[in-house]
Amino acid sequence: MAAKKPADKPNISKEELLKFYREMLLIRRFEEKAGQLYGMGLIGGFCHLYIGQEAVVVGLEAAAKEGDKRITSYRDHGHMLACGMDPKGVMAELTGRIGGYSKGKGGSMHMFSKERHFYGGHGIVGAQVPLGAGLAFADKYLGNDNVTFTYFGDGAANQGQVYETYNMAELWDLPVIFVIENNQYAMGTSVKRATKSTTLYERGVAYGIPGEQVDGMDVLAVKAAGEKAVAHCRAGKGPYILEMMTYRYRGHSMSDPAKYRTREEVQKMRDERDAIEHVRDLLLNGGHASADDLKAIDREIKDIVNDSAEFSKESPEPPVEELWTDIYA
Ligand SMILES: Cc1ncc(C[n+]2csc(CCOP(=O)(O)OP(=O)(O)O)c2C)c(N)n1
Ligand SMILES: [Mg+2]
C-alpha cells in the first residue's frame, strides 16, 4: 500500500477528533454486531462488512454539506451511518424487519434515505457509477451547488461503464466526486492480479478529470482531499477522482474462505495502520482526552449499537400485504 504513516501532530481541533473517533467507532461496532447477528442466523442473504475502511466515509462526510448526495455499492452500512441514517433502521433492515429502511424487504444491499440524500445500496458491481453521474446531472440542471459522492471499488474500476461515465461527466462538467475505495481486493482477486495499471485515479487523465491517491486509513488526509475535491466541483469545474487506499479486515462477504491472503497481512494492517487507533493515539498523545474519556465514548457507542439490535429483534417481520406495496406493477 502506497500510503505513508500520518503526521503525529496535525492541525485539528479536539472536537473534530472526538467526532471522528465516535463516528468511526459507531461503524466498527455496528458492523461487528451485524456479523454476530449474521452468525446467529438473524440476518439472511448477503452481508458485506465495512470494517477497516471507516476513515473513508467519515473523512469525506466531514467535507460535505447539507444537500450533497451519496451513492455506493453493496458494502454500504458505513456510508449510511456516516451520513446520519438511524442505526436502528439500518439494523432492522439487515434483519428483515418492518422497522427497517426498506420495510425489511431490501436487506443489506438495498436501503435508501431521501432525507439524508443516500441513494443506495447497489448489488450490481459498478451500476451506481452512471447513476451517481445522473444525480449530479440533476443538481447541475437545477442550478444548485450540491455535489454527489459516487463510491465504487477497485474491482468495479475495471468496468466499461465507469469510463463511459467519466467521459460524460467531464464533457458536461458534472459535480460528481468519484471515490474509488481501493481496498486491494475484488472478492478474492487482488488488484495486482486483475489490473495492469494499478494507480486507478490516473485513468481519469484520459478524460481530463483531475484526481489523486489518498491515504484512506488516515481520516484527516481523507477530509483534506475531500475538501479539495468538493471545492473543485462546487466551482463548476466538473468531476474529480479520489482513490482511497484502504483495506478491509473481514472477508468479502460473510461467506468468504479467505484463501487469497494471509492472516499475517491482515494483522499487519490492523496493528500498524488502523484508522481508529490512529485517532485514539492523537487524542491521547495530544492531551485531548483521557483513557477514561474514551472508555465513556466506547460505552455510549455500545449502547447505541445494542439498542439497534434490540429494536430489530422487537420489530415484526413485514406482513404478507407488504408483498403488494412499493412495487412498479
Ligand atoms: C456486474 C456484476 N458482476 C459480478 C458481481 C459479483 N461481485 C460482487 S462483488 C464483486 C467484487 C467487487 O470488488 P470491488 O469493486 O473491489 O468492491 P469491494 O467488494 O472490494 O468493496 C463481484 C465480482 C456482481 N455483483 N455484479
Ligand atoms: Mg475492492
From TrEMBL:
Chain intervals with Acidic residues compositional bias: 319-329
Dehydrogenase E1 component domain spans which residues? 23-320
Q: What Pfam families has UniProt attached to this entry?
A: E1_dh
What cofactor is this protein dependent on? thiamine diphosphate
Which Gene Ontology BP annotations are present?
pyruvate decarboxylation to acetyl-CoA
Identify the enzyme class: oxidoreductase
Instruction: Provide the catalytic activity annotation.
Output: N(6)-[(R)-lipoyl]-L-lysyl-[protein] + pyruvate + H(+) = N(6)-[(R)-S(8)-acetyldihydrolipoyl]-L-lysyl-[protein] + CO2
Bilayer-crossing regions: none
Q: What's one GO MF term for it?
A: pyruvate dehydrogenase (acetyl-transferring) activity
Q: Which keywords belong to this entry?
A: Oxidoreductase, Pyruvate, Thiamine pyrophosphate
Task: Give the span(s) annotated as Disordered.
Answer: 308-329
Per the record, the domain of life is Bacteria
The signal sequence is none
Query: What EC number is given for this enzyme?
Result: 1.2.4.1
- Function of the protein: The pyruvate dehydrogenase complex catalyzes the overall conversion of pyruvate to acetyl-CoA and CO(2). It contains multiple copies of three enzymatic components: pyruvate dehydrogenase (E1), dihydrolipoamide acetyltransferase (E2) and lipoamide dehydrogenase (E3).
Assembly behavior: Heterodimer of an alpha and a beta chain.
Name of this protein:
Pyruvate dehydrogenase E1 component subunit alpha
This protein's species is Aliigemmobacter aestuarii
Which lineage do the record's taxonomy fields give for this organism? Bacteria, Pseudomonadati, Pseudomonadota, Alphaproteobacteria, Rhodobacterales
- Report the gene name: pdhA
